[in-house]
Design brief:
Elements (H helix, E strand, L loop, with lengths): L7 E7 L8 H9 L3 E9 L10 H6 L3 E4 L9 H16 L4 E5 L6 H9 L3 E6 L5 H6 L2 E4 H4 L27 H14 L6 E2 H11 L13 H6 L5 E7 L6 E7 L2
Helix pairs in contact: 7-8
Length: about 250
């Protein structure tokens, strides 16, 4: 059932450039962002290279679109996916698109959809070329989504909120400066900035930003781990158990 503020999303998957092993994780991630009302996957289903996708299609109600490779060296799948995206755009049935691919050929498509006021979310591997990443409103790496199975090593005991990711990016000076500039951009007269707004601003500057890239499930523990650079203030909301997190640069 769709909630009032949910977004209708068209999920278009390039079977040639995305591994099928964690489709469950990808769809769970998309569900956090909106309602996937259209789910299509494109490929030449006569080839063995995409045969691994077939069980997942039935399990997750994804519509396979057959596209033969008419000419060697040409990717007909890309063209079919782009044409469908434009048809869906003009049907005005969705609020945004989720383009699942690691192929830079979809850069112009992402740009065109955004020009039409669509939210564009990209999902792909870390090898995805930068032009496609920055053409999206938000880009999520498959490597941080995780596989279909929950890691058996997970526990419920209190511990640093590190995400189970085999490839964790290093927190370098360039990234810290991005955090600081974002805090400064929206900070009040005393330098305090609402952390949720900081996170939204960072994504606008860096579409592939996600705390899980750095080994943290959420932005709050990531910021807290940088105590030499930031102060954190947890403010209780009156008559609720909710706490708003504010951050400012440590002087």
């Amino acid at each position: 059932m769709r909630e009032k503020n949910d977004l209708y999303l068209a999920v278009l998957i390039d079977a040639d450039n995305i591994p099928y092993s964690n489709i469950k994780g990808m769809l769970d991630e998309i569900a956090k962002l909106g309602v996937p009302t259209i789910k299509r996957i494109y490929g030449d289903w006569t080839k063995k290279t995409v045969s691994g996708w077939k069980p997942a299609l039935l399990e997750h109600a994804i519509q396979p679109i057959q596209q033969y490779g008419y000419t060697t060296g040409k990717n007909a799948t890309d063209s079919a996916m782009i044409i469908d995206a434009m048809d869906i755009l003009h049907s005005e049935k969705v609020d945004g698109f989720c383009l699942v691919s690691s192929d830079s050929d979809f850069t112009r498509l992402a740009t065109r959809l955004r020009e039409s006021g669509m939210l564009v979310i990209g999902i792909g591997e870390k090898k995805t070329p930068k032009p496609f990443i920055v053409a999206c409103d938000k880009f999520i790496y498959i490597e941080i989504i995780g596989s279909k199975e929950t890691p058996k090593t997970a526990t419920t005991t209190a511990a640093p909120a590190a995400a189970p990711s085999p490839q964790v990016d290093q927190i370098d000076n360039k990234f810290i400066q991005l955090l600081k500039s974002s805090v400064e951009d929206i900070g009040d007269d005393n330098g305090w900035a609402f952390l949720a707004e900081v996170g939204s601003l960072i994504i606008k500057k860096k579409p592939d930003f996600d705390p899980r890239n750095y080994g943290f499930l959420k932005l709050t523990p990531l910021i807290k781990s940088l105590g030499d650079h930031f102060e954190v203030d947890e403010r209780e909301v009156e008559k609720t158990r909710i706490k708003h997190i504010y951050v400012r640069i440590r002087r």
